[in-house]
Amino acid sequence: QVQLVESGGGLVQPGGSLRLSCAASGFTLDYYTIGWFRQAPGKEREGVSCIRSSDVSTYYTNSVKGRFTISRDNAKNTVYLQMNSLKPEDTAVYYCARRRDYGLGLYPDDYIYWGQGTQVTVSS
Q1: CB atoms < 10 A from the CB of 33, how many?
Q2: Which residues make Cβ contacts (< 8 Å) with residue 31, sequence separation at least 6?
Q3: For 65-93, how does the pLDDT look when each residue is reduced to its tens digit (9 = 90+)?
Q4: What Å distances lie between residue 117 and 55, 56, 97, 103, CA to CA?
Q5: Which residues contact 66 (CB under 8 A, 6 or more apart)?
Q6: Can you spell out the DSSP letters for 42-81?
Q7: What span, in angstroms and rounded, lies between the C-alpha atoms of 78 and 97?
Q8: Number of H helices and number of E strands within the chain?
Q9: Which residues, in sequence order, are CB contacts of 25 under 8 Å at separation 6+?
Q10: How crowded is residue 77: how many other Cβ atoms within 10 Å of its Cβ?
Q11: Mean pLDDT to the nearest integer, 15-26
């Protein structure tokens, strides 16, 4: 049974950092792309970043480039999202998801398994 469990969210001041984790079970990361998405109240779900485990290719949406870093630990079957220089507009529920294949891109319909989400709040 495929399962994705996010953790690491919380409340942080602007300019601060958080590291989100996405623990996967029921499959191995080697053959799939994992993406991070976020959804703020009243807004559509937005793709943040994704990583293809086979060659460690990564992709970021423009608003997080240079601030967020996605990585994976295949031995732990876990994907991470290191978020630095956080801004209030980064506030959202963050989800990790498994793509149906090992392509790159952040179109939500390409992702077929989703975690339950973790709340990130950036506020002073």
Answers
A1: 26
A2: 53, 54, 102
A3: 999 999 999 899 999 999 999 999 999 99
A4: 26, 23, 10, 23
A5: none
A6: TS--EEEEEEETTTTEEEE-GGGTTTEEEEEETTTTEEEE
A7: 12
A8: 0, 11
A9: 1, 2, 3, 5, 77
A10: 17
A11: 97
